[in-house]
Amino acid sequence: MDQNNYPTNVKLVEVGPRDGLQNEKITLSVKDKVAFIDALSNTGIKHIEAGSFVSPRWVPQMANSQEVFTSINKHIDLTYSALVPNLIGAQAAVDANVNEIAIFSAASETFSKKNTNCSIDESIAKFVPVLTLAKLHNIPVRGYVSCAFGCPYEGKVDPSLVLSLSENMLAMGCYEISLGDTIGVGTPKSVYRLLATVLSRVEKSKIALHMHDTYGQALANVLIGLQEGLTTFDAAVAGLGGCPYAKGSSGNLATEDLVYMLQHMGINTGIDLHVLTTIGDKICKTLNRKNQSKAANTLLNLKRT
């Protein structure tokens, strides 16, 4: 593809503090989470998913999100979002003065029942009062479609189901849908196939990609997204995370790897890669886990020599 056809700017949604931390064995204190988010706020990132208001019984790592949101040093030009499963979570998010709410469903009945204890239709029904509340408070709502490229229980997912679910959530009032490769099985061909279906009826500006790097395909998949005109991508610093309901699923695409690729393609992210690398290194030490970012590990090794 001609370099001139790539976008000059992209939007990155940093999901490390939510999707990244929710599957880690160590639960961070409020102090550590606040320090993490405040540090990310100084990298040039403009959108941070800072927590979720879900049952602590199911996702204990997110139990202190209310205190986190009220303690972080919010930048006026940044968006701090929270994931919510229902009206109770949405009200908690409103009370915490979040800038944006995210809702989630799945293109797999089995995964939906395992993840939310309800069917796809039942999960969608729960979002009606959430969208109503958000509209009342002028809070934008972003939608996630999990298992868009494959399901740990059902295998391959029909792109038409992803399209139908995306259109449904947009019609309800979501401004954007992030298509999630929850278990990281997507490849360039399957990403192209899915986007060909979804973009046949949905505007490119309303679709984002949320890739996991289980099989090392995430960057290649993002490249397909760029070639198809997408300009919004989710990532987690140091490749944090995974999915607590998808056994064997490794972390998200590392933000450092994505920023490195984009910068060397001449695509602006507004993010300071070296500052971001330091933050990723620090949070990995706090979590006592390996940094999954190849770019970060290389830059850190060069810095030490």
TrEMBL record:
Annotated PROSITE patterns: PYR_CT (PS50991)
GO molecular function, one term: hydroxymethylglutaryl-CoA lyase activity
Keyword Lyase found: yes
Annotated ranges, domain Pyruvate carboxyltransferase: 10-277
One record GO biological process: ketone body biosynthetic process
InterPro entries per record: Aldolase_TIM, HMGL, PYR_CT
Similarity comment: family membership: Belongs to the HMG-CoA lyase family.
PANTHER family with a match to the protein in the record: HYDROXYMETHYLGLUTARYL-COA LYASE (PTHR42738:SF7)
Protein name (record): hydroxymethylglutaryl-CoA lyase
Organism: Agaribacter marinus
